[in-house]
Amino acid sequence: MAATQTKPRKHTGLKVLAIVLAVLVILICALVTAVSVVWGNEISTAVSLTKVRDRDDAHEDGSVYTMTVKGGFYFDEYIEQGGAKSDSELITFITDHITKGLIDMGLQTSEIACSAFTAVTEDGDRVFGRNYDFSKTNTCIVYTDAGNGRHATVSTVDLQFLGIDGDKDVEGLMDRVTCLAAPFAPLDGMNDAGLTCGIFMSYQGEETTATDVDTDKPDLTSTTMLRLILDYASTVEEAVALVEKYDMHDSAQTSFHYMIADATGKSAILEWTNGTDLTDNDGSKRVLNVIYNDDDERIGEREGASDFQWITNFILQPGYYESDDQKPGYDRYNQLYTALSATDGVVKDMDAAMDILASVGRRDWNNDDSNSITVHSVVYNLTDKTAIWIPNEHYDDADARFELSL
User: Fold this and answer.
1) DSSP state of 159
2) In whole angstroms, what is the distance from residue 128 CA to residue 145 CA?
3) In sequence order, which residues have a C-beta less than 8 Å from that of residue 1 and are 6 or more positions away?
4) Interval 340-355: pLDDT, tens
5) Which domains does the chain have, with CATH numbers?
6) Nearest CA to 316 among 224, 329, 195, 265?
7) What is the pTM of this model?
């Protein structure tokens, strides 16, 4: 009888291994997909962070970065919830939404001293120039996209305010995650409608009392008020109307005022006061005062005679101070007026506007505080939506000149 030939049996162990590997691949793909769905915008934003200028410790220069923010960075949700009335509430919102509560994030603020002005070029372009004075720190030029009623914007952020040490670079994943909070902390910026805004210390009260208005309106902190203006306003009038809907809560027990300008040539200074500098010690009692460039005779003869506006670090309300020597930054204020009034607020071009900023750069100025560095100077062109941005007073260094555009 002939023998029967049997087929070799498949290796059961290999089949099991193949199944396990297939399941693992499916799980990994599912995890990657889930992460992309939940954190896709955040991952894209963090990856976009790029160093564009190295630090120079000998000159007290921090590094300069750029970052392009993907998506809406949850600012719509922040506004819908009624904002926040303190830094701690803002930090909680950022942590819960950007990192889904898995990673703690922080915001910090310090005393800063700055200068800014509006002008018009010989070609008729409206410009807004701003110096940001502080100490050595890293900065980031942040771009955000338009969407859901928001304007596209470009703004400048001091990364030290996000808790990143100014004496070291952005290092590792955690620092990149921290930078995701940057859109909530702009110091100045411009949107695609040609509206610009800057924030400036105002040193109000006997010991610098923060504005902390307490009514039934929704709440915003200092830098998120600036973000609101950049994202949702096209004109100065729209910006003022937005600000009037909110209670202002200054950050870290400091006080601020703002200057806003648009492409039509309209500008305004926004400040919250109650009484005089010696009596303005209850931030909850302050009220908003709006000083327009075409209606500012009440704050001074030279202000009323000028179409341009300029600002440093003191309150402009008449009678607020007992004397001029009590006004922080009054020397720089006078210097800006001297330079601008010589040509009735007309500058040859954006470079000429930058020259005016250089004239009040803090390294060569009579410093009366710890803000001995002009960290960045920027001239925004509100007509063609471009800007010249220069770090750390390197006005004559072509490699330090950044040309921005929306």
Assistant:
1) G
2) 22
3) none
4) 999 999 999 999 999 9
5) 46-405 (3.60.60.10)
6) 329
7) 0.89
